[in-house]
Amino acid sequence: HTSMTCTQVEKVRLGGDLHLSQIVYGVWTWETILAEERQALFDACLRHNITSFDNADIYGGYTNERLFGDVLSHSTNTTRESLQIVSKTGICLHHTNRPEHKIKFYNNDESFIVQSARTSVDNMHCGYLDLLLLHRPDPLMDPKAVSKAFDFLQKEGLVRHFGVSNFTPSQYRMLSSYLPPSVPSLVTNQIKMSPAHVSALFDGSLDMMMEARVRPMVYSPLRVLFGKDAHEDLVSYLRTICSEIRDRMLSSSLPLQSSSSLSTTSTTTSSIDIDTVALAWLMRHPSGPLPVIGTSKPHRVATAADATLLVPHIDRQTWFKILQAERGHEVA
C-alpha cells in the first residue's frame, strides 16, 4: 500500500537549539544491503523530509559510517546544511577491525571521545557532527574528562551538540552537572522503547527528559513487531487497532489529510500499517519521542512518515489498549 503523495515529516526541537526531523533514520544494518539499496533508502528519506540520520562508530563492525559517507558524497539532491548527522562513541567492540580490543568494553575517556568524533567526521566526509552521543554509560567515566572532550570538540567546530544514550536519570543528571560553558546542556538521551518494551514509561527515563526540557530519541521502536521473535498477541491487537482507527477516520466528519495513505478510500480491511500505529503510539507520549527507524525497505520509510499524521488519532483509550496488550493486564 503506498501513499498517493509523500507525507512530509516536520522538524521539531530536540534540545538546546538543535532541530531534527520527527522521524530519524538509523543506518545500523547498512552493511547487510547493497550500495544501490542504501542510495534508495537515503532518497526515500529525503522525499519525506526525513533529514536526520543516526549512526555510530561501531555500526557494521566499524564500516557503516564510511558506507553512509559514500552515499552522502554521491548525493546531488541535498546539502550538508540541510541534514542532521548523529553519531555515537564509547563502545569498544571485540572485532577483527579493532585487533587491539581483546574484549568488548566501554571507553568514555577524553582522548577516545575526541579521536572517535574525528574519525566519524572523516569517515562520513561530513565536516562536522550535528550531534554526538555517548553510546553507553561507562562505569569508569570521569565526567570532568568528558566535559573537556565536549569543550574541545565544540570549539574546534567538529561537534555542535552533545547527548547520551542508555543513561539512567541519575547518570544523565550527574553528567549534566559537569558540562562546560560551551555546552549549555545535553540535548537528548537515546533509549530503547517500543509498544513491546515499555520500561521507560515507568523507570523515570521519560520523566527525566521532560524535566530537562529535551526530547528522547527512541531506538528499536518497532522491535518484535516483525521477524521471528514477533510478539504475536501485540501484533494481532495492533492490526485490530489499525482497522478501528481507519473506520473512525473514515466515518468522522474531520477532513482527512489528502496527502497521506491514511485518507485512502481503499476497501481493504486495514490500510493503516501496524508500524504506523506503533510509531504514533510512541510519539503520542508528552515527552515527544523521536523514533529512530532502521528499515531496509523504502516503502516502510513512507509508512513511518505517515505516523506523524496519525498521532492525533491515537486517543487516550486506544493508547492504553496498546499498553495493556503489551503488559497482559489492565492498569492498577
Describe this structure in a few short sentences:
By secondary structure, this protein is of the alpha/beta class. It is 38% helix and 15% strand. The chain is built from 11 helices and 12 strands.
Summarize the structure in words.
The structure is a single chain. Helices cover 38% and strands 15% of the residues. The chain has eleven helices and twelve strands. It has helices at residues 35-47, 59-62, 64-73, 110-124, 143-155, 169-176, 205-211, 232-251, 274-283, 298-310, 316-327; strands at 11-15, 18-21, 24-26, 52-54, 84-89, 91-92, 105-106, 129-134, 159-165, 189-192, 217-219, 290-293. The strands form three sheets. Strands 3-4-5-8-9-10-11-12 form an eight-stranded parallel β-barrel. Strands 1-2 form a two-stranded antiparallel ribbon. It is globular. Residues 255-260 and 263-270 have low confidence and may be disordered.
Annotate the secondary structure layout.
Blueprint: E1 11-15, E2 18-21, E3 24-26, H1 35-47, E4 52-54, H2 59-62, H3 64-73, E5 84-89, E6 91-92, E7 105-106, H4 110-124, E8 129-134, H5 143-155, E9 159-165, H6 169-176, E10 189-192, H7 205-211, E11 217-219, H8 232-251, H9 274-283, E12 290-293, H10 298-310, H11 316-327
Parallel strand pairs: 3-4, 3-12, 4-5, 5-8, 8-9, 9-10, 10-11, 11-12
Antiparallel strand pairs: 1-2, 6-7
